[in-house]
Amino acid sequence: MKKAIITVVGKDAVGIIAKVCTYLAETKINILDISQTIVDGYFNMMMIVDISGASKSTGDVIKNLETLGSEIGVVIRMQMEEIFTKMHRI
Amino acid sequence: MINIFEVNETNKMIEQEKLDVRTITIGISLLDCCDSDLTIVNEKIYNKITRVAKDLVKTGQEIELEYGVPIVNKRISVTPISLVGASCCKSSEDYVTIAKTLDRAAKTVGVNFLGGYSALCSKGMTRSEELLIRSIPQALAETERVCSSVNVGSTKTGIDMDAVRLMGEMILETAKATKEHDSLGCAKLVVFCNAPDDNPFMAGAFHGVTEGDAVINVGVSGPGVVKSALEACRGQNFEVLCETIKRTAFKITRVGQLVAQEASRRLGIPFGIIDLSLAPTPAVGDSVAEILEEIGLESVGAPGTTAALAMLNDQVKKGGVMASSYVGGLSGAFIPVSEDHGMIEAVAAGKLCIEKLEAMTCVCSVGLDMIAIPGDTPATTIAGIIADEAAIGMVNQKTTAVRVIPVIGKSVGDTVEFGGLLGYAPVMPVNTNSCAAFINRTGRIPAPIHSFKN
């Protein structure tokens, strides 16, 4: 399993999760966990996904999600999980 | 499993607090490039660098993209060239051809700096080392990306005052040779005492002779992250302050460790060390001076500055050491003037002088760094500044360095613009009393005694 973290930050709107999930399904990326909060009126979502079966390279997925985000008007970022686990777990 | 708050904390560090990995530096041994024919040496050097480091920039960019953390610089350090060129360089001009080869190789692989145009002469200079040192002004004027360093002393050997005197002259010559660009050549030239073999930071990086064939060293950064964490503990006691710095340093260093291991795996080159330095940039919010001010100083330079810096430096190391499997290099807070917004402000307002900076270098790496001084400063005075710093390093068993820029045609009150990460700096006044008679004595200062510590 190759885990990555997707974060979506921006102004809340209809269909944000749907659009992200559609892209992930098309790219054969499995969602392991989703959590979401509203911080200071801003939509804040985090997904843990498994990209080991992805039909595109990690770099391409990151760029595609970024483009998708700018289309919806939010910031979508995907980062490999280790940057977070290394920093927050001993 | 990781939670949303932890993810947000990391991303806030990267986006708002300017957390980055300052440099991935590949150290490359050029000892196997030695030959008695200069043309062959140049060819071997070019081929080896472009072979070993060919994927460095690409790999760095991939890691940057996949982990979402900026990696500001990708760089190369090589074996001190005075060793590589010893058997083929008969003149300073011969050495300059190697500098040009290094510059060409750096451009081919796409790195912005390559360090190692260096000589290690802490006890004495060989003829070859002297030739290299004398070639530095021309080499730095005629290349763009080559960095040079000279080690003039160590705790074990004492200080080679002949090399110190010569470096005073060469710094001034380098300033003159690059005077059209505000004496920028001097920003690429460092004089060390106790130079480390595995430093990834420029301009003082070189690949020591005790190192393996190739190695990945990583320098982390993150003054903005530390400052931001300290904002949350205003008015708290030293215990809380120190714990906060340690915890923050741990987190910053873990990112460096991750990047270093990834780079090592992808490039197939062993991981060397993480350099635990707080490296500032001229950007607001990425400054070591601002951390000191957050700790409680009205301005850096105020009484208490040295103590605050000593504490900061020590806590960064304590937090960082546990976060990395190998620590090395310079490992300490950097206090370059032109590369640190808070330092620039303090100098411009007359709140920070060279003498206070010198005191600060006693408790942190690395030395008098990126300080613009008047262009009419005599070479012997520059040598005196070098000797003072080297003495601090020699006696305190630490690395110290001098990177001063005598800006030709400018004097106190003027400002110099170096551009990019090198920043800008007000020209600082230097004590004008002469030390020529001291500097002009020949020979060396003996190694200090290691007992009777008082």
Write the layout of secondary structure elements.
The complex is a heterodimer of chains A (90) and B (454).
Chain A: E1 3-11, H1 16-26, E2 30-39, E3 42-50, H2 58-72, E4 74-80, H3 82-88
Antiparallel strand pairs in A: 1-3, 1-4, 2-3
Chain B: H1 4-15, E1 21-28, H2 38-52, H3 56-67, E2 71-78, H4 81-84, H5 92-109, E3 114-120, H6 127-142, E4 146-154, E5 158-160, H7 161-177, E6 189-193, E7 214-220, H8 223-231, H9 238-267, E8 271-275, H10 288-295, H11 305-323, E9 327-328, H12 341-348, H13 354-361, E10 367-374, H14 379-396, E11 400-407, E12 415-417, E13 424-426, H15 436-439, E14 444-445
Parallel strand pairs in B: 1-2, 2-3, 3-4, 4-6, 7-8, 8-9, 10-11
Antiparallel strand pairs in B: 1-7, 4-5, 5-14, 6-11, 12-13
Give a verbal description of the structure.
The complex is a heterodimer of chains A (90) and B (454). With 90 residues, chain A is an alpha+beta fold. In chain A, 37% of the residues lie in helices and 39% in strands. Chain A is built from three helices and four strands. Chain A has helices spanning 16-26, 58-72, 82-88, and strands spanning 3-11, 30-39, 42-50, 74-80. In chain A, strands 2-3-1-4 form a four-stranded antiparallel sheet, sandwiched between helices. In chain A, a hairpin with a 2-residue loop joins strand 2 (30-39) and strand 3. The longest helix of chain A is centred in the last third of the chain and has 15 residues, at 58-72. Chain B has helices spanning 4-15, 38-52, 56-67, 81-84, 92-109, 127-142, 161-177, 223-231, 238-267, 288-295, 305-323, 341-348, 354-361, 379-396, 436-439, and strands at 21-28, 71-78, 114-120, 146-154, 158-160, 189-193, 214-220, 271-275, 327-328, 367-374, 400-407, 415-417, 424-426, 444-445. In chain B, strand 12 (415-417) and strand 13 (424-426) form a beta hairpin. In chain B, helix 2 runs parallel beside helix 5 (92-109), helix 5 (92-109) packs across helix 6 and helix 6 runs parallel beside helix 7. The mean pLDDT of chain B is 94. The chains are: A alpha+beta (90), B alpha/beta (454). At the A-B interface, strand 2, strand 3, helix 2, strand 4 and helix 3 of A face helix 1, helix 3 and helix 9 of B.
